[in-house]
Amino acid sequence: MKIVIIKSFLSFFHHKLIMPWSLDLVPLPPCALLGGPPLSGLLWTVLLLFLWYCYRVGSDPPSHSGMLKSGSGRSSFSRSSSRSPVDPRHSAPKASAAITMEMVEEEEGTESYLTPVLSHAPFPTEAAAESKKLYRALQEYAKRYSWAGMGRIHKGTFINICVVSQHLCHCLINDRPSIQKPHLFYLPDVPSIPFFPRDAHRHDIEVLEASYPIILAEFQAMYQRGIDTKLGWSYQGPKGQTVFPLYNAGVCVASNCRACPCTYRTLLSLRTFISSNSLGSAGFWLLGPGATLGGAYGPTNTRLRCHLGLQTPAQCELVVGGEPQCWSEGHCLLVDDSFLHTISHNGGAEDGPRVIFSVDLWHPNVAAAERQALDYIFAPEQ
To answer: Where do Low complexity bias regions lie (predicted)?
Structure first.
């Protein structure tokens, strides 16, 4: 097909453009005059072959010597993972903090599943065990499924390795606000603000607010039985804060869910509830009068915490990224807790505890393929 197209073009070019004026304006060499039509045909054949050669050379994709050639080949980062982790009591060595991905020679015809993503990406020579585990999980996911849509996940994994290893990667994290420091996983290029509008998760917010009366009734029934670890309660952070979890780090707390069946069914009806990985939790959070939670950062910016106010004294305040907000009973707040946040209850004993029902929802800018990958990478350890 390509040859036919080229021949048609050359025929048109010869008859329409060259023939009318070539004999009058362009003097032919003696050899051409002596050769006659056979020599002219030979010249066109050579020209055709030359054009075909140029076409093939231009259409062949260039080779990339920096890509990994085989999925079985290991990068220099993989080899460095066998080293013992750095002892934090000793200062880091002054040697180069990063090395380059090396080309691994394997049999021809094989292509690595890392090829679409990794080229000369530098990785720290020493990384924490958790960072190595995170990267290996991403590799395993890509091997089983695909690297398609994993660009931000891969970049975030690399940032996590650098940060945990205390190697500064200003080229990658200089766009992160200084008041936003998720300590577990940071997904780059995600629009971030301390408080999100209701439209970000309108369906789930409307479901939670419509279920407010039954959720409040189930909480009050449990609260009247008493706060005891034997009854499913747990203490979080400083004195004065207790939690009754329905989901804890992606794991359903069956006994607590049986105690709150309607609330549990409401959770299952949400479209964006993070229920399949350790980044997601849901439950009742109590903060006693006079208690204050100092500045803290959430584990990731891939989620939003939805707070449904159940009992909210006027003296309670939530400050996220320097922006203060107050809860309202029966209404939801969407919070990005990867920003620096503080919580305070300045009321008296007569006000009782502040109570919210907290649910972790996916950040609206995290794509479906990325959610699936994060579910795999951060699968709960049961």
So the answer is: 70-84
